[in-house]
Design brief:
With about 140 residues, the protein is an alpha+beta fold. It is about 65% helix and about 15% strand. It has five helices and two strands; from the N terminus they run H-E-E-H-H-H-H. A two-stranded antiparallel sheet has the order 1-2. The longest helix is centred in the middle third of the chain and has 29 residues. The chain is elongated and about 95 Å long.
């Protein structure tokens, strides 16, 4: 596991959220209830005015319903792939020391500066010592 995989974790998390938003938009677009009122009159005397309330489900007129379904499948596959990467990184994180888990979580996942990581770690840690510890760990992996 290297730094690039750790960065993919962040991208995977963002990708999951974006894909979920797009999926919700597609589902809303897919089925929408349309309403309208139509007015008219009788064709024979007495010409009485009538109005009719029309309601129904409007499918996307711009896209074929099958293409919308295909887009939904692609988005769901994207979510599944990103979730798999996320799960692999989280499983790997359990195999390393708790201190290094904290350093990686603060620095890579939460994108803190080295100074902020040192403050969160505490115990007389400095930004340079935390940075060096991280570098050594990544070189060994």
């Amino acid at each position: 596991m290297d730094k690039q995989i750790l960065e993919q974790y962040i991208d995977a998390c963002e990708l999951i959220e974006e894909a979920k938003v797009e999926l919700r938009k597609l589902k809303k677009q897919r089925k929408r209830i349309e309403q309208d009122v139509v007015k008219g009159s009788s064709c024979e005397f007495p010409y009485t005015a009538k109005s009719f309330h029309v309601e129904g489900i409007a499918y996307s007129v711009l896209k074929d319903p099958r293409s919308v379904e295909e887009q939904e499948k692609v988005l769901q596959q994207r979510i599944d792939d990103a979730a798999r990467i996320k799960q692999q990184v989280e499983a790997w994180m359990l195999t390393i020391s708790p201190r290094m888990q904290l350093i990686i979580r603060y620095r890579v996942f939460e994108e803190m500066t080295w100074e902020q990581v040192a403050v969160r770690i505490g115990r007389r840690a400095t930004a340079d010592s935390i940075k060096m510890e991280f570098r050594r760990f990544m070189e060994n992996k």
